[in-house]
Specification:
The complex is a heterodimer of chains A (99) and B (310). By secondary structure, chain A is mainly alpha-helical. Chain A has four helices and four strands; from the N terminus they run E-E-E-H-H-E-H-H. A two-stranded antiparallel ribbon of chain A has the order 3-4. Chain A is globular, with a radius of gyration of 17 Å. Chain B is α+β, with helices and mostly antiparallel strands. Chain B folds into three domains: 123 residues, DnaJ domain (Helix Hairpins), CATH 1.10.287.110; 83 residues, Urease metallochaperone UreE, N-terminal domain (HSP40/DNAj peptide-binding domain); 97 residues, HSP40/DNAj peptide-binding domain, CATH 2.60.260.20. Helices cover 25% and strands 25% of the residues of chain B. In chain B, helix 2 runs antiparallel to helix 3. The radius of gyration of chain B is 29 Å and the shape is elongated. Chain B starts with 5 loop residues before the first helix and ends in an 11-residue tail after the last helix. The relative contact order of chain B is 0.09. The chains are: A mainly alpha (99), B alpha+beta (310). Chains A and B meet through strand 1, strand 2, helix 3 and helix 4 of A and helix 2, strand 3, strand 4 and strand 5 of B.
Amino acid sequence: MKPARAKSTVIVSLTLEELCRFCHADRNWVIELVEHGVLEPEGASIQNWRFHSISIARAKKARRLNRDLGVNAAGIALVLDLLAERDEMLRRLASFEDV
Amino acid sequence: MKYRDYYKILGIAPTAEAEEIKRAYRKLARKYHPDINATAEAEAKFKDVNEAYEVLKDPERRAAYDQLGKPEAGAQDGFRPPPGWEGGFEFTGGSPEDAEVFSDFFETLFRRQGQPFGAAAGARSADQHARLQLDIADAYSGAARVLTLRMPQVGTDGSIQLQERSIMVQVPKGITEGQHIRLAGQGMAPPGGGLPGDLFLEVSFAPHPVYRAVGRDLYLDLPVAPWEAALGGKVMMPTPDGKVALTIPANARSGQKLRLKGKGLPGTPAGDIFATLRIVNPKVTTEEARRVFERMAREVPFNPRAGIGG
């Protein structure tokens, strides 16, 4: 079967409402993630918030961790920080091991 | 279809209590969650564990599953449910929240009732999410990828079949990790008719032995010879876009970071390349090389352990 061709566009940024729809999350949950520093939107007020690619991917990850493992916003902030640290350590370890 | 031993997947006895099932599931879900465990087999294991729990957590489904009986070890591949098995059980609610496709075994036996997806959440949007793994080089040049998706379709007799469908995706140049590509109208057709949703692809890069991308910047460890580091000069550095000349300053240290502006992932502005120097010693195998090192040992005043009191 010949694959269908589809027009593709890259998502540049999302507003709070768009992000909520995008990752099936509710508004308060997203605001809580911002308060915990998990997401870093651009814009001074909630109405002007724009979420860029890194925050969009992190919001989805946060949603999955919450849904699958029951982790709350504070726990997600901690988990993501520790995972970033772990990945950095693993990378450094790998660079020593292959010398 | 292939029989699936859900008790074995969760590592519990068929007599396990509901609480025990939940504990075993939670422990394995934490261990294999794809956002936490990046190994290749974690995602498949996580899916298996969820499929097993989806059946065993629900008393009705678990009773139906137990009634199937476990086939002999040799007869698990061509499994058929015993005649009359379907009678007497009502599966209510409890569909997995996301449009996740489980094994044929699960889809055929346990997802027959109601709509294929999200039966519990009727108003769920028909948008669909998937991941797209690319090579870093694809982000430099742009790429076309054929994506194959498996989606359950309800047949005219109400049975569910997994259908494969392929979509050609144009990946634009300069895409970065974590960005989403939207394919309008390529999501699912909502049950009961209506316009299909969008398909969103989250981009990630396959691990590369040399390069690591952070946003549009590219990081790598660059091995240099002791004399290149000491004397400085131009060396040829590989990039996903071809080789470029990099100037090493004289007396460069191991671990020193050099920036090559604008040679990272393309965009406005383009990213940079950060090369961390790693001084690598040549193996001394020839008489000639031995003589040079011996001369350096005699003539170059240097105590590498001065800083640690040695």
